[in-house]
Amino acid sequence: MYDVKSKKATEFIDDGEIQATLQYAIEHKADFPLIDQILEKAATYKGLSHREAMVLLECEDPAYIEKIFQLAMEIKQRNYGNRIVMFAPLYLSNYCVNGCRYCPYHAKNKHIARRQLSQEEIVQEVLALQDMGHKRLALETGEDPVRCPIDYVLESIKTIYSIKHKNGAIRRVNVNIAATTVENYRKLKEAGIGTYILFQETYNKEAYEYLHPTGPKSDYAYHTEAMDRAMEGGIDDVGCGVLFGLNLYKYDFVGLLIHAEHLEAVYNCGPHTISVPRICPADDIDPAEYSNAISDEIFEKIVAVLRVAVPYTGMIISTRESQRSREKVLRLGVSQISGASRTSVGGYAEGAPEEDSSQFEVSDNRTLDEVVNWLLELGYIPSFCTACYREGRTGDRFMSLVKTGQIANCCQPNALMTLKEYLEDYASPDTKAKGEAMIQQTIPLIPNEKVRRLTLEHLKAMEQEGVRDFRF
């Protein structure tokens, strides 16, 4: 039986409810008076239920699809403006004991080079990332309780935060590691992590168990209930996601929204981020084997409807996607992207081993400066901001600011100041010129006169006195 407040996986992710939702959407996909009502509700910026969202996703009428896209763009502009947050993944280890059929890290893969970074190697990786201009990392590991225990992850986080190099520093470490215990989540919180990220891969229990035949990850309930344990451990910023293409995308779309509703109902705090990766080529993995792979058109529609349904959450797209694909979904709802990503262990430092230890192929191979330049050309503000996390604006405190639209009062000046840091310390001349023009163009748009004046003072201090790390 479906129970949004239950902490049992098969009750808050109920197959019967998902199937009924899919059938309801089919029956109402051309019910235009209903769709008008749903769009009117979404236009109040309060979000949609999973059934309402699925009706929009199922709708095939071109005129209404365009309405959905337009509303998604309006909601994104209202909550996030033209800011795009930048980050990079950092792979610590690819040792793994699981048997996941879609991931080259699976235990039986003998082709891939296995590595784990020492603390000294982590320093070199972080220095390379800082020299690019990155301020925010997402730590990635395979699941191996012996080779990659929680103590190793905690030590690595401590190492990363300790590294100050020139004007560089990693100010926020998000963590994407396997489902673990409340005690371990508490340790991660105490270590100062930002967001705890865990992809469900698929919410269909039968498909999940087929795709995860062996290893700790094969336990559907333990994996699906991980966010509850993270919340109980004090982590109030969590990031959800599925790997679109593993299962029927409509099923996973509904499951993802039901999961968000569950967190909102139980903890008064939905997911801080939602990621939307698609299955892609990797060592030992052929995406052609997955008949549920989705087209660019469906992918764009998913992003737009997610933005309309969960307007308060950040949306992340990685370098799995091409420049062309990323450009399309940026306008529809994505608010965070990676830049200059390496998905191999030790992929950033000079002289790193050439053996392929990548988790998947990167489609967007541009440097961070090229990505920043591209965003500026498109009219976006590349943001390296970590202020909310460092000022305690997390969990329900962050959500309340987003839901009321007040977060923009902090985000816009913070984004400009972190962009200024990047321009002063790392940018190429062309990128710097474009960035300075963007800052001058945007300053007058800061509505609060006092904030606008302080922002100008801080920008001047950065340029003339070399001061860094201002934040509201």
Give a short synopsis of this structure.
With 472 residues, the protein is an alpha/beta fold.
Number of domains: 3
Return Rg in Å.
21 Å
Kindly report how far apart the N and C termini lie.
46 Å
Estimated share of beta-strand residues: 5-15%
- pLDDT below 50 for ≥5 consecutive residues: which ranges? none
- Helix and strand content put the structural class at alpha/beta
Count every beta strand, where a strand is a DSSP E run of 2 or more residues: 11
The CATH class designation of the largest domain is Alpha Beta
CATH topology of the largest domain: TIM Barrel
Please describe what this structure looks like:
48% of the residues lie in helices and 10% in strands. It is of the alpha/beta class and 472 residues long. It has 3 domains: 9-76, no CATH class; 81-365, Aldolase class I (TIM Barrel, Alpha-Beta Barrel), CATH 3.20.20; 404-465, no CATH class. Strands 1, 2, 5, 6, 7, 8, 9, 10 and 11 form a 9-stranded parallel β-sheet that branches. A two-stranded antiparallel sheet has the order 3-4. Helix 4 (50-58) runs antiparallel to helix 12 (249-267) and helix 6 (119-132) crosses helix 7 (150-162). The chain is globular.
Topology:
Blueprint: H1 9-12, H2 15-28, H3 32-42, H4 50-58, H5 62-80, E1 83-93, H6 119-132, E2 136-141, H7 150-162, E3 164-165, E4 168-169, E5 172-176, H8 182-190, E6 196-197, H9 205-211, H10 220-224, H11 226-232, E7 238-241, H12 249-267, E8 273-275, H13 296-309, E9 314-317, H14 323-332, E10 336-338, H15 368-377, E11 381-383, H16 387-390, H17 395-403, H18 408-425, H19 429-442, H20 449-465
Parallel strand pairs: 1-2, 1-10, 1-11, 2-5, 6-7, 7-8, 8-9, 9-10
Antiparallel strand pairs: 3-4
Helix pairs in contact: 2-4, 2-12, 4-12, 4-13, 5-13, 6-7, 13-14, 15-19, 18-19, 18-20
